[in-house]
Amino acid sequence: MNLEHCRYIVVEGPIGAGKTSLARNVATRLNCALMLEELETNPFLEKFYEDLSRYALPTQLSFLLQRKQQLQVVKQQNGFAQSVVSDFLFEKGQLFADVTLNKVEHDLYQQIQTQIPFDIPVPDLVIYLQVAPEVLIKRIKQRGNALEQYISEDYLYRLSERYMQFFHEYDRAPIMIVNSEHIDLAHSMTDLDLLLARIDQMRSAREYFNVGGR
Description:
By secondary structure, the chain is of the alpha/beta class. It contains 8 helices and 6 strands.
């Protein structure tokens, strides 16, 4: 795979996987535009972390509309004429809905989602950061985000499992599955170079990058 030909690259993974940091680094290295999930503009997110069951539905609906709008703006402005690196896949909303919503809420979310006319753009490449829940918990504690301290371990385990299920079956775009437990893609340019070189060597639609323990 020639990264220079990729117009739309997505970095994904559960909370604490390091997707935003990697997306920033990839965008900088490849001289691409950067499209990040706008967490701070979701008016329900803070309350969601404090009371998940009560605010799950409005939080997920807000993100659904936000992601749609962000992708529409990029398509309308340049049609991905300039390469874009993003830290979210549009379909991630379904994963969070599956984990956080009860049946009635889930059915409503599905109904609303199907009523929103939108041609979802397909990435040229998805980089999925796979991390054990225990490592996610450790990273979240280390980075000290006050809101994230409300996240329960059970929630992270269920979310990680849903991510693994989804990407095990994902076939809409070429995907590089990265075991990011033993590499530092946020701060080590050496590790970043190793990953980008491995992506350039991709010959199939699903490949793996695993450096191993250090």
